[in-house]
Amino acid sequence: MEPLAGLRNLTDFKSLIIRLASPEEVRAWSRGEVTKPETINYRTLKPEKDGLFDERIFGPTKDWECYCGKYKRIRYKGVVCDKCGVEVTQSRVRRERMGHITLASPTVHVWFFKGAPSKVSLLLDVAPRAMEQVIYFARYLVLSVDEKGKKKAITQLEEAFKERGTEIKGLFEERRKALISKSEAEKEKARGKIKDKEQLALTISEIELDLRKKETALLEEERTTIERTRELFENLIVLVRGLKSLSVLSEEEFEELVMYSAADFFEAKMGAEAVLSAVEKINLEEEVVSLRKELENVKGDSTRYTKLTKRLKLIDGLRRAKVNPSWMVVKVLPVLPPDLRPMVQLSGGRFATSDLNDLYRRVINRNNRLKHLIELGAPEIILRNEKRMLQESVDSLIDASQRKATRRGRGRQPLRSLSDMLRGKQGRFRQNLLGKRVDYSGRSVIIVGPDLRLNQCGLPKDMALEMFKPFVLREMISRGIAPNVKSAKNMLERRPPEIFDILDEITKDHPVLLNRAPTLHKLSIQAFYPVLIEGSAIRVHPAVCSGFNADFDGDQMAVHVPLSKKAIEEAGDLMLPQHNLLRPADGSPITTPASKEMALGVYYLTSIDPRIGASETVFADKEEALLSYQTGKIELRQKITLRVDSDLLDTSVGRILFNEVLPAGFEFVNEAVTSSRIKELFTRAFASVSREEVVTMVDAIKDLGFKGGTVSGLSFGIFDSKILPEKEKILKEANAKVAEHESNFAQGLITTEEKRRLSQEVWIEVTEELADKTWELLEDTSPIRIVIDAKVGRASRDQVKQLAAIRGLVVDPLGKIVELPIKSNFREGLSVFEYVTSSRGSRKGLTDTALKTADAGYLTRRLVDVAHDVIVRTSDCGTEDYYLVLRNPRSKKVRIY
User: What is the pLDDT of residue 407?
Assistant: First the structure.
């Protein structure tokens, strides 16, 4: 029976456990060993024997047909061909059957020695960096120490030092004698040549002086050499004394110990073999008992306590899971089924292959080379290098991101390892399992639907028909329009008119969910009742755009159909916009017509036009005023006098129309209604009237706003922003003041900081003066002024300042004010210098925004990961008791939890 056969029908499970596999388990999964790096024969296009696609190991490439073609058809099911050795079965087994590679030298699993915390280093209590150096053959790991042999080695080193000292002294004594004999020879030579007694005495004294100098230098050299030798031997003795099991030695230290015959009392190895030997000696039960005792005795040393706790947690976890720690060292490498790492032929005869095949090929090549070198009896240094390369190739296969120098493919892209296929946004879990595409969904560009009610969205007919297809087919059969599903589908393709009547009935009370990515809060998914429309774009109510953070510049939305009765009820009871009128963050109104053209239209309607004189007529009630407006007696924005509750008010027809749509009980709003005022009215409405009335109010103000916006016909161009004629004169005066400050600084009357501050004050005053005077140039009826007064969107006086007055002082990327201001405005155009100066800070702003978005997204993900398994086990008891918790005992600030 196949080892994985039991998993085929196992669809009902609650959880998966990922655990280490033993070499025996890997062999049990496997159907055969892969010994060759070949994939397919490029002439026959058939898999090579013993290669990565071998049919004998992984199963046939064609259903019910062996490799050689001797057995074909299903009647030979289960027969193993006596000629080619391939079992006659379905080709889909190539997605399930695994192979294995028996490694010539063990390798440590990269997950367990790289990253923080390193499991292998924690288990053996060796520093992670040192452990990595051991695994990559840069250091030795001491596996066992003979204490008697250690004492003997120390004695040997002490004796070796004495011998070496005697030897050094002897060498220097010989050199000293050679110097003296050389000096005597020079004296004799001088006596034979020089006859003058005084000159001879002088020459001999020079020779003796030179001898003394050389003797002194020789003595110093002797002392230094002996000192250096003493230091070397002392270090070696300290090293030997400190050696214990699982100590780490560098190559130089090991070579020195070997040189002085002091390496016989311990066993040391390199690479994964050393780790395997060390791990196999660990008794988990005894280690747990010993660590618990040690933890009881640790007092005051928090670092030691933390380390012991981590170690105990790991070892106890291995013990309870019945995992042998030696399984962290890979002896048998599993090979993924070939259909999960496919190889396909492209047009032109080339082949595209999964990165895993390249990584497996590299492992097999190095493994085979190492086997061959071992058989030849190659020197240890060559074998060591090959073992290190095998370790690196297995690391790259399992997790390439852990290695600094990652292997790259033909396109210089890093090859995707097994871990990379699971990890991150594009990995198997987030991309394929959590991010599955669902049925009964669609996606399209959104456009505004100004005539929609708040709980409605416009759904293109063709999209709706495709999503509600099963419902329509069922209804067609139940009404007798079609006898069966097949004929109903055929009829559906022809799109007869009655199909859309059925669709209309189905969608009338069946809400759909609209989702706009990124889904950052609950308002990013809301439910709507669909209204069937022509075209291909989804229509959205303008008031819900704030919640979705949507605009109509090409944004797309996804539509999902809730299927079950419970899902439909939940969508209607919880997810409609009428249940999501407030912002979850702070409880302020969000689904309101308080932005863009809606707010502008309301402001236009409720503002008084100063160009039209006030009406002399006093109107008795609203109806009379509206009738006069409809008959053309008065204007929409003309000032009129109206009796309201026995009081006379100066108002306008526009304000009457606005108050008509407010809920009963609201006092007469007699002012120009801005965006913020609309929000205030909705805040009050939430507290005083029912939700249904608020929804009616949203739609009524939205319709009124669009009507007002249309009537206003507001538009503005570049010439609506007027430039102040005396701007140049004001700038000249400012330049003169700044020049005066520069002169004072040059004379030493003020400091650099004072000069900078005074100059900035000059330009700030000038900027404000120009901004105010430019604003005063705009007439009350100017479209720019109306838009800004309506407080719609981001329009502000500051923008008028930059467009028509002066940009003024700007900041650099570090947030400091640039000394030279930008004297031009956008209508005049900036000089090259001004453009570069202003761009620096702007670029920094854009960069920061992009980085903050990524950070915020990652933070949200981590918060969700932490909180998603929290279970609410009790209902809210409604208590008003609380605890006062001091954030800081010294501070008076109190936080309530």
Answer: 59
Mean pLDDT of 155-167: 87
Q: How far is CA 862 from CA 534, 581, 855, 859, 867, in A?
A: 43, 28, 11, 5, 9
Confidence of residue 57 (pLDDT cuts 50, 70, 90): very high
Q: Which residue has the higher pLDDT, 864 or 455?
A: 455
Q: Are residues 555 and 653 in the same domain?
A: no
> What does the DSSP 8-state code read for residue 517?
S
Instruction: Report the CATH number that the domain containing residue 785 is assigned in CATH.
Output: 1.10.132.30
Residue that is written with structure tokens 């997810």 in the block: 575
Burial letters 300-333, b for 16+ CB under 10 A, else e: eeeeeeeebeebbebbbebeeeebebbbbbbbbb
Cβ neighbour number for residue 753 with a 10 Å cutoff: 8
Could you write out the DSSP letters of every residue in 830-869?
Answer: --HHHHHHHHHHHHHHHHHHHHHHHHHHHHHHHHHHHHTT
pLDDT for 894: 47
Are residues 457 and 530 in contact, defined by beta-carbon separation less than 8 angstroms?
yes
Please say if the pLDDT value at position 476 is more than 60: yes
pLDDT interval class at 405 (50, 70, 90): low
Cβ atoms of 419 and 397 within 8 Å: the answer is no
**Complete edge-to-edge strand list for the sheet that includes strand 248-250:** 248-250, 139-145, 266-269
Instruction: Say how far apart CA 287 and CA 278 lie, in whole Å.
Output: 14
pTM, two decimal places:
0.71
Domain co-membership, 664 together with 556: no
Is the domain of 442 the same as that of 426?
no
Tell whether 390 is covered by a domain.
Answer: yes
Given the structure tokens 């006092």, which residue do they identify? 667
The residue from 436, 453, 477 where one domain ends is 436
Q: What is the longest distance spanned by two Cα atoms in the chain?
A: 151
Q: Which of 235, 266, 297 is the last residue of a domain?
A: 266
Query: One-letter amino acid identity for 500?
Result: F
| pLDDT band of 791, cuts 50, 70, 90 | confident
* Tokens 């004492």 -> residue: 151
State the DSSP code for 432. I
CA 387 to CA 675: how far, in whole Å? 73
- Banded model confidence at residue 132, pLDDT cuts 50, 70, 90: very high
Torsion of CA 106, 109, 115, 117, to 10 degrees: -90
Does some domain include residue 827? yes
pLDDT at 685: 94
pLDDT tens sequence across 12-40: 777 778 889 999 999 999 999 999 999 99
